[in-house]
Amino acid sequence: MNVSLLLIILLVGAFATYFAGDKLASKVALLFSLVALGTSIALLNAYNVGENISFFKYWINNPSVSYSFTADGLSLIMLLLTTTLTPLIIYSSFGNEYKNAKSFYALILFMTFAMSGTFLASDGLLYYIFWELALIPIYFIALIWGNGDTEERKKAVVKFFIYTLAGSLFMLIAFVYLYQKAGSFLIQDLHKVELSRMEQFWIFWAFFLAYAIKIPIIPFHTWQAKVYQKAPTVGTMLLSGIMLKMGLYSVLRWQIPITPIASKTYLPILIGFGIAGVIYGSIVALRQKDLKKLLAYSSLAHVGLIAAGCYTLNIDGLRGAVLQMLAHGFVVVGLFFAAEIIYRRFGTRTIADMGGIRTQAPKFASLFMILVLASVALPTTFNFVGEFTVLYSLYQINVWFALLGGTTIILGAYYMLKMYQQVMLGETNSKVFADVNFHETLVLVIIIAVIFFFGLYPRPINELITPSLDQILRTLNRIQ
Amino acid sequence: MNTLIAIIGLGILCLLFEIFDARKAIIPIVVIGLLAILGLDISEYNNPNTYYNNMLIVGKFSSGFSGLFIILTIFLVSLSHKFYENHQTKISDFIAIKIFLLAGAVAMVSFGNLAMFFLGIEVLSIALYVLASSNRLSIKSNEAGLKYFLMGSFASGIILFGICLIYGAMGSFDVTEISELSRSAELPIWFPIGIVLVFIGMLFKIAAVPFHFWAPDVYEGSPALTTALMSTLAKVVAVATLYKLVKTMNADISPAFQLIIVIVSIASMTVGNIMALRQVNVKRMLAFSGISHAGFMLMTLLSISKSSGTLLYYTSAYALAGIAAFSVILYVCKTKENEDITNFHGLGKNNPLMAAILTASLLSMAGIPVFGGFFAKLFLFNQAIQAEFIALVIIAVINSIISVGYYFKLILAMYTKEPNETKIPTPTVYYAVAVIAIVLNIALGLFPSFVLDLL
Questions:
Q1: Higher-scoring residue by pLDDT: B317, A63
Q2: Is residue B299 part of a domain?
Q3: How far is B415 from chain A (nearest CA, A)?
Q4: What pLDDT is stored for residue A479 in this prediction?
């Protein structure tokens, strides 16, 4: 058993979904995503008992490229995040009707395929191909099934596409350049390349451009809010829950170990970028009138902190960043789903038009409240573990970093609770709000269960990721 | 050699069809004949040989590219059936001209003598002039043909002048002899001048900046099928010939010459892309996109000793994407007067398959992974970086980003606009050609070594 099986399942799933026709598409997609989840759990087991789950096959002779998939703890946990969120995301869309549903669900599975490939590939070019492939489905999902005015949506989505493509093409140049030096695209060979300071700096920034746009790190975030707002909720969940983790994962996997000197030199600047994102995102979120846009900016703030954690280059920072990636993935999907639940009933995303939901829908109110609290990193939630670890590692570097980074919790609490108050509390709204149905409850409950479970017991994840993070740091510190 | 003779024989056969009034059978028979010729070509791949005192050199390079030309011609001939529906009486002329054009193309990549080279160019060009103005009653087509003829014959004149100067300097038309003589220390000044003149003439044929002005008008005015031929087959032939010419005659490229190539390449990419952004006519847009692709293909000249595989790969990926795109364009604009983007509105709803094929071919041209176009650009960049032209690669990448802008304009039109009329029935042959071409393109992407290691 090896990881290529999972990719095949997802790819076959995408085609099967397309050919299943509009009526069955959602169910087939859900089925395949659940099979993929089962497979990735089985892969995790196989990995834990020491079985070799990597896959290697030559592809192109010159330049030498191979189908090379390697799974270590870090890849596996990202894979699990992807395959756990995908069925949830697909299931969460069951209340909606989509035109041309077969293409819609096929694109979702195809995107999951591409994202899983990105997390698994250990050949630079293969990784790049998956990285780009993930972009095409989300482009069409946001473009065709998005909401709002077509012209405006078109602008936002095209901007997003061109931005991301532009960034990644510079990464491609970096890879091709590295290939000249190493004679191979394989990650272990790329780690061994001796690069001069100057070369490292160029390559570092080429990678940074690709990742900073994807994550997004300030000042490359301008595409984000509009796209999150205009995309259908499923697309927003895929983007914020999984796709932006591709950027963060790549920082850890590719950028830092390949260019250690540059990473160390730019450490304060990069943490500065991250923390600037935290503060900027939080302040802008305060002023948002659109619920989805508010969540987009809050996501920007959280991701800024994760990015800062990745660039601390110490084990606590890295571990915290990975934990927070997972936690953020779940919470943000939950929050966007809550926004979608409200939209299904009220047909609006403007915060001012909401209010008075709590009295009508107590179940939804409590579930939403838990998600809001998790998002502001209340102790016992998963987010607390992640954020606290990152802040601790920032404190080790400079107390000011920790202090400024910590504003995420304070400002976050402020805008999230204010949002909750405006959306849920207040006078009874004249509009009727039916409480959450079974589907919706199930999705929210699963997310909340995950958040609490790993909030109280993060050890299994820690044990899984720490060896691979140690490995990354060892590669990083090979040159003193 | 046998390939060339067989092609000419097939062309003559086409003309005979008219006499015997068997026009209905012409397309199937020509397609089968071309497939047989493709087999012949493959058999020649492993038997390098020279014919008629080095007039023709048949080798891996020539048979590899000839194979590509034959495949493209098969596609173009298959599309002809529907396209010339209203000109049934002239169909055998049109097909025969295409076959002779192919003969010219094959002669161009297998020349061993500059006389043969020029002969090939003229056979190809004259066929193209005729095809450009083949829509006799349309004033635009007439204009295109005349424009192309005037400019093209001027370029041919320059090439001929260059050949004369080379002969004056070297005393021979034979490329191997010229190549050997060119290594000697003292070269008469005529030789580089001649080379430059031939180079300029060829740049005109491939429509590289600053010799590109004919392309948009001619592409727009010509009948759509001729435009398809020009932007795929004719462009690929010209680039391959230029490559062979530079490679055989001028093995050691001087830095000054490299600089010229870099400048022309950058100018072609940039001008082509920026002009394409503003076009509303799809044929014009693809003309400018072709100019920018010519710039990319010129990059192969910078590492000329080992880039023939890359060039074959790039041209195949580009031409196959072009064929797929044009069969969709032919389908959409069959009943329309022009090829404006508005005609493509709502194609995603009306005909999802055709829209998906056009999207795929545009993504391939833009260089998005898994399609052949991505790997083509990758191999190209890889070789350019190997030859230490990093700045050129960065400019090329920026150009790729710009190109996404106009390729996506078309994709957006297909998927976000409302259709302006009801469905039009699709002839199966358009489907078949489009699907096969795009499948071949994706197969190129999945198994790049197959083509890359041919040469």
A1: B317
A2: yes
A3: 7
A4: 65
Our count of domains for chain B comes to 1
B365 lies in a domain? yes
Q: What is the band of B252 on the pLDDT scale with cuts at 50, 70, 90? A: low
User: Pairing between strand A65-69 and B49-51?
Assistant: unpaired
- Minimum distance, in Å, between the CA of residue B400 and any CA atom of chain A: 9
Backbone angles phi, psi at A70, to 5 degrees: -125, 135
Burial class (CB in 10 A: 0-12, 13-18, 19+), B138: middle
Asked if A170's CB is within 8 angstroms of B397's CB, the reply is yes
pLDDT digits (tens, 9 = 90+) for A319-368: 999 999 999 999 999 999 999 988 888 888 888 888 888 888 888 989 99
pLDDT at A480: 55
Average pLDDT over residues A3-12: 92
* Cα A150 from Cα A145, distance rounded (Å): 10
ipTM of this complex? 0.90
Q: Enter the tokens of residue A10.
A: 């997802």
Handedness of CA B235, B237, B241, B244 (dihedral sign): positive
Contacts of B381 in chain A (CB under 8 A): 172-173, 176
Size of interface A-B (CB pairs under 8 A): 73
Question: Which A-chain residues 19-48 have CB contacts (< 8 A) with chain B?
Answer: none
Average pLDDT for A5-13: 93
**Per-residue pLDDT for A95 more than 80?**
no
**Among B396, B405, B403, B199, which Cα is nearest to B296's?**
B396
The ranges assigned to domains in chain A are 281-480
A177 to chain B, any CB pair closer than 8 A? The answer is: yes
User: Are the C-beta atoms of A28 and A108 separated by less than 8 Å?
Assistant: no
Q: Do A162 and B378 touch (CB under 8 A)?
A: no
How close is the nearest chain B Cα to the Cα of A132, in Å?
6
The yes-or-no verdict on residue B251 having pLDDT over 70 is no
Whether B395 and chain A come into contact, CB under 8 Å, resolves to no
**Domain range holding B304?**
254-455
Name the residue of chain A whose CA is nearest to B449's CA. Answer: A60
